[in-house]
């Protein structure tokens, strides 16, 4: 995972863990408040106090449901550090819905009589405890940001008066979690303490050199071409925002993000971050381990057949381009003759390719040669689902001719993908494949991954474009 995603993912995970802890404490505290605290004298204590165990069991069942409600209100979105007061309404709405679930369970479960006073306590206590947990994280992040730890590096594209205002505002206010790396413009600001990173024609190099997390564009600057900047950001896993001249330009397809009281329109965001990253990574690891285990007999048989048929290594290693353009080595069963590309150079496989071995044609047709790539998934080079990784030679070639090609690299590449399960394997139209890849990047969900895996089974056995 890139450093850009880690910064937001860690804080999202911290919110999740804190909420789980404080909701459980709220259950225990509400029970204590009703039966063992000094206020019990105001209740009817003529009957024996109920045991604690049923309440603990209920909390184990109910907490995941409450977390779903909290997540639906954006409580784990990587939106930077917010003041605890900004969480008040979302928390109240989430806990209110959660209490309906609690009351429904208590109503239908007749084997134990739950105390209504405990539930009344739980409603107010859980809201207070969750907000307290958010305050703790706010205090913790405020201290870290004050020391310059964990801040996102922001680049401002522009040098007019609006750019200067944004620069000053973010430089003086670190609470939103940003630190100015500098500004990029054809006009250098001479007055004041402003870091000039270079002209716009060096924008690509500046993004890499200064490890930029966020680009803030000021299109009202006559020297800024917003479309050109967006193109130069292709393939970089960064957040892209701009300060509009007219806020009426905002549509339903973009989001407004406020930093230090200044509204920005966010045109692009990191597609898989925060809690989503952890969900996808855990799923990848569990699925890969399970798949490697159940395919172990097939792996042994294929290994023996490859070694019997032709001399050479069992595995084939090849450089591929993955997340944010980083090169890694894929692991596959060798399906071609040794030194197959010595004469031809880098070319895609085609139907009836005479470079493949006998067993190679079979394992390529049914994608058995890709079983070892699940090791790449475990290593973190790839994901189970994502755009298929390509070789550096073809990436350099296609990024110049295919619009949006580098957007595929904003997520981990995968063993299977949305394009592949829609019949776009092998020598199929590249521009169509890219459209499907970009759709996946912008619309990822764990359920979407599961759907693609299910469709992959059908594609493996009935694809006409695998060779």
Walk me through what this model shows.
The protein has helices at residues 3-35, 53-72, 88-108, 116-146, 161-172, 203-209, 226-232, 275-294, 296-309, 358-365, 373-379, 392-398, 430-442, 446-462, and strands at residues 152-157, 178-184, 196-198, 214-217, 239-242, 255-259, 262-268, 315-321, 327-333, 383-385, 414-416. It is built from 14 helices and eleven strands. The strands form three sheets. A seven-stranded mixed beta sheet has the order 3-2-1-4-5-7-6, sandwiched between helices. Strands 8-9 form a two-stranded antiparallel sheet. Strands 10-11 form a two-stranded parallel ribbon. Helix 9 packs antiparallel against helix 10. The two termini are 32 Å apart. The chain has 467 residues and is of the alpha/beta class. The protein has three domains: 3-146, no CATH class; 152-268, 3-Layer(aba) Sandwich (Rossmann fold); 275-462, no CATH class. The radius of gyration is 27 Å and the shape is flat.
């Amino acid at each position: 995972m890139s450093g850009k995603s880690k910064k937001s993912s860690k804080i999202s995970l911290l919110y999740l863990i804190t909420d789980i802890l404080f909701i459980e404490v709220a259950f225990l505290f509400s029970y204590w408040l009703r039966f063992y605290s000094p206020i019990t004298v105001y209740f009817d204590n003529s009957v024996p106090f109920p045991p604690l165990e049923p309440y603990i069991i209920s909390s184990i069942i109910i907490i995941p449901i409450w977390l779903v409600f909290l997540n639906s209100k954006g409580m784990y979105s990587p939106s930077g550090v917010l003041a605890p007061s900004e969480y008040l309404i979302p928390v109240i709405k989430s806990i209110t819905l959660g209490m309906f679930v609690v009351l429904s369970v208590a109503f239908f479960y007749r084997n134990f009589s739950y105390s209504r006073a405990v539930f009344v306590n739980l409603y107010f206590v859980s809201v207070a405890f969750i907000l307290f947990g958010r305050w703790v994280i706010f205090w913790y992040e405020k201290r870290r940001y004050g020391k310059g730890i964990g801040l996102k590096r922001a680049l401002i594209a522009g040098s007019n008066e609006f750019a200067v205002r944004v620069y000053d505002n973010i430089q003086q206010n670190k609470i939103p979690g940003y630190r100015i790396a500098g500004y990029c413009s054809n006009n250098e600001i001479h007055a004041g303490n402003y870091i000039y990173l270079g002209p716009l024609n060096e924008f690509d190099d500046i993004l890499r050199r200064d490890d930029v997390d966020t680009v803030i564009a000021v299109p009202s600057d006559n020297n800024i071409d917003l479309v050109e900047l967006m193109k130069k950001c292709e393939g970089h896993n960064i957040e892209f925002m701009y300060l509009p001249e007219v806020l009426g330009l905002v549509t339903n397809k973009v989001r407004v993000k406020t930093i230090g009281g200044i509204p920005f329109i966010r045109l692009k965001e990191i597609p898989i971050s925060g809690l989503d990253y952890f969900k996808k990574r855990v799923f990848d690891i569990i699925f890969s381990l399970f798949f490697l285990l159940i395919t172990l007999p097939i792996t042994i048989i294929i290994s023996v057949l490859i070694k019997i048929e032709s001399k050479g290594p069992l595995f084939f290693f090849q450089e591929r381009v993955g997340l944010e353009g980083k090169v890694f080595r894929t692991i596959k069963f060798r399906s071609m003759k040794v030194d197959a590309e010595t004469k031809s150079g880098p070319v895609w496989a085609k139907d009836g390719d005479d470079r493949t071995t006998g067993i190679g044609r079979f394992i390529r047709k049914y994608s058995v040669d890709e079983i070892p790539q699940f090791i790449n998934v475990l290593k973190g080079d790839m994901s189970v689902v994502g755009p298929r990784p390509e070789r550096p030679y073809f990436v350099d070639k296609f990024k110049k001719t295919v619009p949006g090609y580098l957007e595929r690299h904003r997520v981990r590449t995968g063993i299977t993908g949305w394009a592949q399960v829609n019949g776009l394997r092998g020598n199929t139209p590249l521009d169509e494949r890219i459209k499907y890849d970009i759709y996946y990047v912008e619309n990822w969900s764990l359920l979407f991954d599961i759907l693609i895996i299910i469709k992959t089974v059908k594609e493996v056995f009935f694809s006409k474009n695998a060779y």
